[in-house]
């Protein structure tokens, strides 16, 4: 190898080093820009609320008077978050049937019997209590509570009573 070959090697090596340093500077600038963007995005109130909900403690330990007050407040907020009953808790069987049951029982979806006496043969023999139990717990393709988990047992009973009255 000659001195000329050494100079060519040094020039190429220097060019590669300068290129790598330049590439590193570009990557660092890009990372800093992305970090600034992420910090601006965190000011989104919905995202912040979701983050706080994920970080919320599952349970707490309450002691003394301060703890007693905090426990009472936690119980009140839990009671307020309890699920509400469908249709304002109304036990109007016809209204419940029209809004919750008719979708399947009118169209016959998944084998749901229509409000025709012939469609209920064999079912009526089971008695009202069994029909109510089937409506509450589901049977066959019918989901529990007709797919409306917000219906109370009393509302289910009212809708079954309405349907039975229509069959007579």
Structure report:
This protein has about 170 residues and is mostly helical. It is about 65% helix and about 0% strand. The chain is built from 6 helices and no strands. Helix 4 (about 95-105) crosses helix 6. The relative contact order is 0.08.
The CATH class of the largest domain is Mainly Alpha
How many β strands by DSSP?
0
Percent range of helical residues? 55-70%
Q: What kind of assembly state do the chains in view correspond to?
A: single chain
Keywords:
mainly alpha, Cytochrome Bc1 Complex, Chain D, domain 2, elongated
Short précis:
The chain is mainly alpha-helical. 64% of the residues lie in helices and 0% in strands. It folds into two domains: 3-80; 86-167, Orthogonal Bundle (Cytochrome Bc1 Complex, Chain D, domain 2), CATH 1.10.760.10.
What topology does this entry show?
Layout: H1 3-41, H2 45-55, H3 64-80, H4 93-107, H5 128-137, H6 153-167
